[in-house]
């Protein structure tokens, strides 16, 4: 079934549960939109809003760009980390007009507290790196001239260096609490991460008159939040 970009169809915003959803609520409020149900208390995957012309699609964070690119959603919100991995395989498929300055953290290299990361890099050791951010990790270590073997994992990244699966991990770090609880330390920051608004290119052309006011409201709200952060 082809995407429904007819003028009267509701706009669809793809979001993931958790921090991105919670940080998006104030942006929606600033646009005059109230979310009437929570994905934490509802089993629905399509949530209504106070605006009959806008609905929310609740999907996994890593799937948000796919839903937007292929037209199942008109626009969405995804972390920079997710977008790097997606665009490595699907270059040019998405329009990314706005950094929303929400769900901020860092993509970092971490290892056991007793591992000499700087010494290993200096000596030219080949490192085993566990991560789900394969593209970002590969680009980072290539730029440093460090040879690595990438081990892709989908969760519980902190376990890998503890049981000898990897020397280091590349993962998102916010407060660092999970690292400390597992006797790991962040040894290098790769890049700051925040969530971005992404838009289906066809929807922007055919439904731009309805999309643009929301995009403008999101941008104003995110700029205001960045100024007070």
UniProtKB/TrEMBL annotation:
GO terms for cellular component: cytoplasm. It is found in: Cytoplasm. It holds the Pfam family HisG. It is an enzyme of class 2 (transferase). One of its GO terms (molecular function) is ATP binding. Pathway: Amino-acid biosynthesis; L-histidine biosynthesis; L-histidine from 5-phospho-alpha-D-ribose 1-diphosphate: step 1/9. The keyword rRNA-binding does not apply. Keywords: Amino-acid biosynthesis, ATP-binding, Cytoplasm, Glycosyltransferase, Histidine biosynthesis, Nucleotide-binding, Transferase. Coiled coil: none annotated. SUPFAM superfamilies: Periplasmic binding protein-like II. It catalyses: 1-(5-phospho-beta-D-ribosyl)-ATP + diphosphate = 5-phospho-alpha-D-ribose 1-diphosphate + ATP. Residues 60-218 form the ATP phosphoribosyltransferase catalytic domain. GO terms for biological process: L-histidine biosynthetic process. Its EC number is 2.4.2.17. Gene3D superfamilies: Periplasmic binding protein-like II (3.40.190.10). Catalyzes the condensation of ATP and 5-phosphoribose 1-diphosphate to form N'-(5'-phosphoribosyl)-ATP (PR-ATP). Has a crucial role in the pathway because the rate of histidine biosynthesis seems to be controlled primarily by regulation of HisG enzymatic activity. Heteromultimer composed of HisG and HisZ subunits. Lacks the C-terminal regulatory region which is replaced by HisZ. Belongs to the ATP phosphoribosyltransferase family. Short subfamily. This is ATP phosphoribosyltransferase. It comes from Corticimicrobacter populi.
């Amino acid at each position: 079934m082809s995407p429904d970009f007819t003028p009267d169809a509701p706009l669809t915003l793809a979001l993931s549960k958790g921090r991105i959803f919670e940080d998006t609520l104030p942006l929606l409020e600033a646009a005059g939109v109230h979310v009437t149900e929570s994905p934490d208390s509802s089993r629905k995957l399509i949530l209504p809003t106070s605006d009959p012309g806008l609905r929310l699609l609740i999907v996994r964070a890593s799937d948000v760009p796919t839903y937007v690119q292929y037209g199942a959603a008109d626009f969405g919100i995804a972390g920079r980390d997710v977008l790097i991995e997606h665009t490595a395989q699907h270059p040019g498929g998405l329009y990314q007009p706005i950094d929303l300055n929400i769900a901020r953290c860092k993509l970092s290299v971490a290892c056991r507290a007793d591992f000499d990361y700087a010494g290993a890099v200096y000596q030219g050791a080949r490192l085993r790196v566990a991560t789900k951010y394969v593209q970002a990790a590969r680009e980072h270590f290539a730029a440093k001239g460090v040879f690595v073997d990438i081990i892709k994992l989908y969760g519980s990244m902190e376990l890998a260096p503890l049981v000898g699966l990897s020397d280091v991990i590349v993962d998102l770090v916010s407060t660092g609490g999970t690292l400390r609880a597992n006797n790991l330390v962040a040894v290098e920051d790769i890049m700051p991460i925040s969530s971005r608004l992404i838009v289906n290119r066809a929807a922007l052309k055919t439904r731009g008159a309805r999309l643009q006011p929301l995009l403008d409201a999101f941008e104003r709200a995110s700029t205001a939040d960045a100024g007070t952060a």
